[in-house]
Amino acid sequence: MHTSKVSSFFERLFFKPTRLDWVFILFLSPLALLYAFLMLLRRIFTFQKSYAVPIVSIGNLTVGGSGKTPFVIALAKRYNEVTIISRGYGRESKGLVEVSRKGEILVDVFASGDESMLMATSLENASVIVSGNRELAIKKAIKEGAKIIFLDDGFNRVNIKKYEILLFPKEIKNYFTFPSGPFREFFFMKYLANSILYEEKDFKRVVEVVNQTEKMLLVTAISNPERLDAFLPCGVIGKIYLEDHAYFDEALLKEEMLKKGATSLLLTQKDEVKMKAFQLPLSVMKLELQIKNEVLEKVQNYIEEYQ
User: Fold this and answer.
1) For domain 55-202+292-306, which architecture applies?
2) Which contacts of 257-262 are long-range, i.e. CB under 8 A and separated by 24 or more positions?
3) Would you identify the CATH topology of the domain 205-289?
4) What is the chain's pLDDT, residue by residue, as a tens digit (307 residues)?
5) Which strand (E) or helix (H) includes residue 282?
6) What secondary structure does DSSP assign to 154-222, as a single string?
7) What backbone phi and psi angles, to 5 degrees, belong to 127?
8) Which residue ranges does the chain devote to CATH 3.40.50?
């Protein structure tokens, strides 16, 4: 019940490279340069299409988590008649799927994916759609009456005209593009965004542990799980890391709890949505983002001007 050696290697290579890793990074750098140039050409030669409603994209330039999901939730809570469109990473369904319609959950987490289900259950009045074809999802959202669309992980959807928000983590050690590093495009592409936001400077994570117990076993299926270390409470007696978006086996988790004498499992909200039916004691790291008012005002101005 741990991440594969390959995944662990690339997470270290991307986020916490050792001196030896830099040899491998430089070896792969020609491929990284080629990949980055292809992404640049894609931007240059792609036509952007406008839509009848304002679209706000929350994205990042790096692979892995940077706070996109809680950021989307924090923004969407401020508006009515909102639809969130996501790819639905980790889902077992295909095509376009309506996860929720104005707060009503329509499918299970296997059809939605963990992040999309978290957004759907966190937003009582919003709609959530998952689709690999974002243009099709936008048309569906507008047809269903959406007045504002938030595009989750939408920076690389270069054919859609939108307000671009880019999120960056606190610390970046490897600025190479894939496969040498975590960047999806050249670092300077960030200047195409309308808002470039850095953690701790422009937004801050606030974590509250719900149902904290004496001996907690951390179990999570997120990218770069070591980023949770700064928020862990006292009483964590062990850690289990799975592949990003992986699903959990209740029987195996119960066995691990018994082995370690844990009184509960400690999870993120993203993990919790996949354990709703489990008969196990859960302690949940409830995350909220505090976003600077000037950031929120810029988004509001864009929406008002568009409408």
Assistant:
1) 3-Layer(aba) Sandwich (3.40)
2) 257/217, 260/215, 260/217, 261/215, 261/237, 262/215, 262/216, 262/217, 262/237, 262/238
3) Rossmann fold (3.40.50)
4) 555 566 778 788 888 899 999 999 999 999 999 999 999 999 999 999 999 999 999 999 998 777 899 999 999 999 999 999 999 999 999 999 999 999 999 999 999 999 999 999 999 999 999 999 999 999 999 999 999 999 999 999 999 999 999 999 877 889 999 999 999 999 999 999 999 999 999 999 999 999 999 999 999 999 888 889 989 999 999 999 998 899 999 999 999 999 999 999 999 999 999 998 999 999 999 998 999 999 999 999 999 998 6
5) strand 282-291
6) -TT-TTB--EEEEEE-S-----PBTTTSSBSS-GGGGGGSSEEEEBTTTEEEEEEEET--SSEEEEE--
7) -110, 150
8) 55-202+292-306, 205-289
Which residue in this structure is represented by tokens 């000037």?
294
